Amino acid sequence: MKVVVAGAGSIGSLLAGHLARVADVTVLTRREEHAAALREQGLRVSGRSDFTAQLDATADPAALPDAELAILACKGTDLEALAARLDGTLPNATVMTIQNGLGAEEVVAAHGDWPLLSSVTFMSGTRHGDAHVEYVLDTPTWIGPHRGATEADARRVAELIEAGGLKAEAFADLRPAQWSKLIFNATVNGVAALTGLPHDFHFAQVESPSDLGILVRDLVDEGKAVAAAAGVELHDDPWSMNVLATERGHRHFPSMLEDVEARRPTELESINGALVREAWRLGVDVPLQTAVYRLVKAREASYSE
Amino acid sequence: MIGCGAVGSLFAANLSLLDDVEVWAFDLNELHAAAMNRDGLRLSGADEVVGRPHATSDGSELPPCDFGIVATKAMHTEPAIAATAHAFAAGCVATVQNGLGNEEAIARHVERVIRGTTFPAGKLLGPGHVQWDVKGETTFGPYDERTPFAEVERLADACTRAGMPAHAVEDARGPQWRKVIFNASTNPIGALTGLTHGRVCERPDLRALVTGLVDEGKAVAAAQGIELDADPEELIDHAARPEVAYDHKASMLQDVEARRQTEVDYLNGGIVRFGQEHGVPTPLNASIQALVKGVEASWTQS
Fold this sequence. Notes:
A: 8-stranded mixed β-sheet, 12 strands, B: Rossmann fold, N-(1-d-carboxylethyl)-l-norvaline Dehydrogenase, domain 2, 5-stranded mixed β-sheet, 4-stranded mixed β-sheet, 12 helices
């Protein structure tokens, strides 16, 4: 089976490396040096897995093989540009998005009539260079059908990912899982970006009134009210997800925190922006989520100070 | 003077020039105290003054005084007054500090307390030398019925004669809450976003968040029967003008950039606490307090 993984950040690299053990993988990179490094050195995976994968790589979308599956694994902020590069390619592929937040499927749908799968991932990794990724958190990727794809398609991809050595699960309807993660990300990433704290015990601390966990819980409650108004029954309680993650003892630095520290644009619009706009559309009052959204947006504006 | 940083120095230096006033300055910074005793306390900027307070870092050296003025950061009120209360057994102690709760902390150690709010500002340039950035008014009022109003007037008169204009009013909570609401609604927004006051105010979405914070503060003030002496909204917009404080980095932003503990517990935290006592919900102020406390906590992470 031929698979294209477009985007080789930490998530893309983890997928490409593991899938290369069970499929013919081609990685689409932005930079030719990155593609050359992958072709010449293979992709080393360390951490929870330990192997070097042989795979093909290119920076030229026209050189991609006629794959059955393409996973678009860039950040949400880069998805529009990536989907535009793929316009007119991959005629027989089912395309899977894996971005945080909401709206990725619509961005891709505007650039081609591929059958679409949605997914959300909880795994994490750290890139140590163009040809080396460390597998850090072995939490699953959840997959569901979107336009033109079926639950059986989602199951086949989940099985392929599992065969490669990662964790995956298929759902008939991804929205309950997607919304659980949306609320979790909007809350945890936003609070981390504003405070500079990694996702650690402070996020679950609820003893005294000014403890951060109380704010986190209030933000989650607002998110749940939006999900309820949207008719989505959540797959997981985002507050429990938060507490569990802080109990793992691993101090995870959410990407939004890394982005503001490096003064890069964040995924704010597709995560917090998407949640707040859904709330407004549905007439749900979310003053605290709105405040976090506006504060991070202003923080991005401060880069030019 | 209990705490002789920037604001304390403005009072100490000016008051020490009056013939009928003897000023003692208590400050834990020993280099600053030694410089004051050796070379005097110099103010430059809005006015040039060299005052001659008696300075000490040892509270037990203070003689009995008619008045104390507390000018420490709010988190240092308790230890500062505990170390100096003996000097005010027969006197009154005023606060010119930021935030809410200072009067209560002082009243645990001293019987006669004066509530105060001051607008002059400056910064400590080095031992014995303070930059006087802006002049401004001070309002004093009795904290409770144990403080004779005549004493409040006597303190205000001395400050006014010394070039630090002050009024005595029966209820000084209006100016205090006006300043607290202003600071609590703008300082942490600057601290969390990195934006100057003017840039916070010119973003309509952020300005709306400021208004949300102001409205909670006003509701808590109203529930206590406090009449604000001016609308914080107008002061916020006034300060955002290019010729006023557009480029000003809020003191809390300066604190965060220097990784110094902020006064958020006495600003937003004070509004939250008084809100709870009077049954007024303050979710935005509580959230902002939690975020700034989170910023402070992030500094102790490895």
